[in-house]
Amino acid sequence: MSIETTVTRAWQRQALWLWLLLPISWLYGLITMLRRQAYKIGLLSSYRAPIPIMVIGNISVGGSGKTPLIIALVNYLQDKGVKVGIISRGYGGDSSQMPALVTATSLPSVVGDEPCLIVHMTGAAMAVCPNRQQAVTTLLDAYPDLQLIIADDGLQHYALQRDIEWIVVDSARGFGNEQLLPTGFLREPMSRLQGATVIYHEKLKTGAIRNNKDNNMLPLGNRSTMHLMPDKLHHLWQPEPTGTNKTNAKVEIDMPEKGSQVHAVSGIGYPQRFFDTLGSIGFEVVGHPYPDHYDFGLSELLQYSDYPIVVTSKDAVKIRALLSAYTAAQSLSDEYIELVSRLWVLPVTAILSDSCYDTLDEQLKTLGIQSDTDISIKTT
After folding, report:
1. Are 262 and 284 in contact (CB under 8 A)?
2. Distance (Å, rounded) from C-alpha 244 to C-alpha 257?
3. Per residue in 89-120, pLDDT tens?
4. What is the per-residue pLDDT for 251?
5. With bands split at pLDDT 50, 70 and 90, how would you rate the model's confidence at 172?
6. What is the sign of the dihedral through the CA atoms of 38, 40, 41 and 46?
7. Contact assessment for residue 112 and residue 93, using Cβ atoms and an 8 Å cutoff
8. How far is the C-alpha of 285 from the C-alpha of 252, rounded, in Å?
């Protein structure tokens, strides 16, 4: 088990030994505060893009649902006629090849898994680079008519000035023990929520957020909320047949039935959410959590041989790339044909409350961003 996995599990169960790390958290908090103040008063320089920047991030370590949220917002803005682009650090990609534009043919090993997924789902203009200024200039050089840029997970990147901040809070985890790293999983103190638009990521069909400190349930009221709606399972990959070689024949597949056992393999920030979602739609889940952005190997997946394997859309991006590279070099062996027949993806769609869209429309109006059309989004 990796150190990352060990610490993540300790955060989830709020292990008592974490409090031994409190002095380190105090030091981390001091450095974080001084760094932010240095940018605020101009001791450290920051970049102002020529068009408005909307940052979407969180104050906690681990997944909070940012990627599905970004996909939903980009689709909404595109339907309204707003020319929107996206930038990202490109975590998991090859920084030596950045800044880089992300296209439909980009590889997750080069630009990162989440950028590949976002572009696949939206077709939006996107650039990646750890240096967000370079990402912005690369994007605008290629797409000079953009009206808005969404920065994925750039909340703590204060070298980039921003016009809108949305912070996603995962209500399933709340704020843990409310301590900064490494005692808790907060990157910044809860006071950081002040002045930003906070989106509470709720479980499907729930109506409250848990306050982990006193274990009370707080009513949502008019808070901006989102939840993830699972779509239908679909097969991860189907090779195209070439010639008469049986290893390139169409793979025979059978949809996993509700109530059956499945291996849930996940390399996202908060795997338990994925496991819970699969359980909520009727599967008996055998969970296999991996570190966020984990680079799976095909041989690694062979060990899960007794049940169908279900992965997230983000993990599927990397696995498809592996399968494509494998079949480009050689035919599928019998064991890999059998593996492919058991690989499934559970996509999810972010469903936003009306107040999310109302807030966004008002923020765009304040920035002078005009849309070509008015559309109505109904939440479900």
Report:
1. yes
2. 32
3. 999 999 999 999 999 999 999 999 999 999 99
4. 63
5. confident
6. positive
7. yes
8. 23
